[in-house]
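Run log // design_07
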């Protein structure tokens, strides 16, 4: 994976093969950030990266100037890799090793953007629990955005606070916001 833009543009990051991850493709990531670039000043936002895996999305936000990034993943190897990478690049990424659903049930901290990249094999009930917890617990700041990455074979358009989706190859991003 590589960082698309910002201070660390072009830098390649190689994650250990043993991590249980499926990083967002560079093409999909670039398209997502083109959308976000039109709505947010990256140096003024707070980001929560759920199911953060390799930290791919967190690194992109950090490279673009975001100073408040929290990455949450249940896998110790993923958290360790993100910590090591963030430290080597001197990126302001904090990590929490936790089950994402338990984290969302217990946190009160609000964020401008919440990005979730759960396993593509989640059933619709598991996917629906993400926006349910985010909105029930008021975890988005005013004008904030929840983005869930998923397979194009999963339809999240019936979930509450759904706004729209964008498809890039086999990847899909569904956007949720307070209506």
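design_07 sequence
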């Amino acid at each position: 994976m590589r960082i698309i833009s910002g201070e660390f543009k072009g830098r390649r990051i190689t994650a250990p093969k043993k991590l249980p991850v499926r990083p967002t493709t560079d093409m999909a990531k670039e398209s997502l950030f083109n959308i976000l670039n039109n709505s947010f000043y990256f140096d003024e936002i707070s980001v929560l990266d759920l199911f953060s895996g390799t930290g791919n999305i967190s690194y992109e936000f950090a490279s673009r100037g975001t100073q408040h990034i929290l990455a949450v993943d249940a896998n110790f190897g993923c958290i360790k890799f993100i910590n090591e990478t963030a430290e080597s690049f001197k990126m302001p990424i904090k990590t929490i090793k936790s089950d994402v659903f338990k984290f969302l049930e217990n946190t009160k901290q609000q964020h401008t953007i919440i990005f979730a990249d759960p396993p593509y094999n989640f059933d619709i009930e598991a996917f629906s629990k993400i926006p349910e917890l985010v909105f029930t617990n008021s975890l988005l700041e005013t004008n904030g955005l929840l983005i869930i990455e998923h397979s194009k074979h999963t339809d999240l358009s019936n979930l509450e606070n759904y706004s729209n989706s964008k498809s890039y190859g086999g990847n899909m991003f569904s956007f949720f916001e307070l209506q």
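The chain has one domain: 26-176.
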